[in-house]
Structures are given as structure tokens and as C-alpha cells.
Amino acid sequence: MDDRIVKLERKTKETDIKIELNLDGNGNSSIDTGLKFFDHMLESFTRHGFFDLKVHVDGDIEVDDHHTVEDTGLLLGECFRKALGDKVGINRMGYAIVPMDESLATVAVDISGRNYTVFKAPFKFQYIGDINSQNVKHFIESFANTSLMNININAEGENDHHICEAIFKSLARALNTATRITHDQILSTKGTL
Fold first, then answer.
1. What's the CATH code of the domain at 142?
2. What is the CA radius of gyration of the chain?
3. Mapping DSSP to helix (H, G, I), strand (E, B) and coil, where does residue 171 land?
4. DSSP 120
5. How many domains does the chain contain in total?
6. Which of 48, 89, 109, 147 falls 20 to 30 Å from 186 in CA-CA distance?
């Protein structure tokens, strides 16, 4: 199996982002987005997906968190797409159900070559730590758009932190399953993904 390691950069007037991803890692991370709660979510994502991930972002967080969260999602999705290469042998689909105290998140993914997002989560407050709760959905949509995946998320709970963390952990577990190489075919009747 070829190494599935990618290093990419994205620079705009709003953000300067560097990401290094190893799909076949051990859950090691070095995350600095300038947003502590977002760092925490990406660290959980890395640990529970068994990916190795380095993320460094210089973003316009003096404006707000939107561009940093969005652009990180866009670049991370691109990293996944490039690291997966021709997708020969991957499971393609994966799902996970993850509880966190009173919260429960169910995530299903399909690395289909088509982007689509379903996101149902009952956040009660505008902010979770230092990120706008609306930007959690926006991160997932941005990631799905550039990774060309279907991502379906359904979460419930009382505590916004718990709901969000369960989502990131469940997404990681689902992606761990979907990205694993277990055979030597492309799982599509079209012959391509």
C-alpha cells in the first residue's frame, strides 16, 4: 500500500492554513487554529479516527471564527480526497454511533465522489467555547464539498459541548471505517468513485 500522506496549504486574504494528514496514523495531532474549542474538536477527531494530523492556521479571528473554520474544513476535505488517491480497495462507506454523557451522535459517510451534507443537531446557544455553533455545520459542509463525500449527521442531547464533541468523534470513527483498505476493488458499479 502506498503511503496515504498529504501536505497542503491554502492562503487567502482571510486565512493562511497548512495541513499535514496521514490516513494510516496513530491518532497523533498538532493543532493550532487560534480557536481553542475548534482545536479540541480537531484533536478529538484525530484521536478517534486514528489519523495523524497537523494543522496550523493564521486566520482573521479578530473578525470572527467563520473564515478559519470554513477554510480549515475546505483544506482538510481536499487533504482527504488527495490522500485517498484512486480509492481502490477502500471500504467507501462507514458509520458510527457515539455517546457522550446525555448526547448521542450518529454519523454515516459515503466516499462517493459526490458531495452532500445532512446535518441535524439541536444546538441551544450561539457559541460553543470560542466558535459560533452555526459554523459546526458549515465546517462539515465545507469538508464534504472538497472531499466529495456524503455525510449524514443526526445528533441529540442537552449540552452543546457534548453534542459537538460526539459529532466530531462519530465522524472520525465513520471515516476510519470508510477509508480503510480491505480489498482490491473500487466499490462502485460505475467502476470509479
1. 3.30.230.40
2. 16
3. helix
4. E
5. 1
6. 48
Position 94 confidence tier, pLDDT thresholds 50, 70, 90: very high
> Could you tell me the CA-to-CA distances from 140 to 134, 153, 181, 191 in Å, in that order?
11, 9, 24, 27
d(CA 47, CA 51): 7
**What is the rounded CA–CA span in Å between residue 143 and residue 170?**
15
The total of other beta-carbon atoms located within 10 Å of residue 154's CB is 16
What is the C-alpha separation between 55 and 33, in angstroms, rounded? 7
Task: Report if residue 193 sits inside a domain.
Answer: no
Provide the grid cell at 134. Answer: 452555526
The answer to whether residue 111 is domain-embedded is yes
Question: Could you tell me the residue range of the domain that residue 132 belongs to?
Answer: 5-179
> Taking all residues of the chain, what is their mean pLDDT, rounded to a whole number?
97
- Residue pair 55/22 in contact (Cβ under 8 Å)? The answer is no
- Count of positions (residues) in the chain: 193
Q: Is residue 98 part of a domain?
A: yes
Residue 121, exposed/middle/buried by CB under 10 A (0-12, 13-18, 19+)?
A: buried
Beta bridge partners of 7: 20
**C-alpha grid cell, residue 160:** 452543546
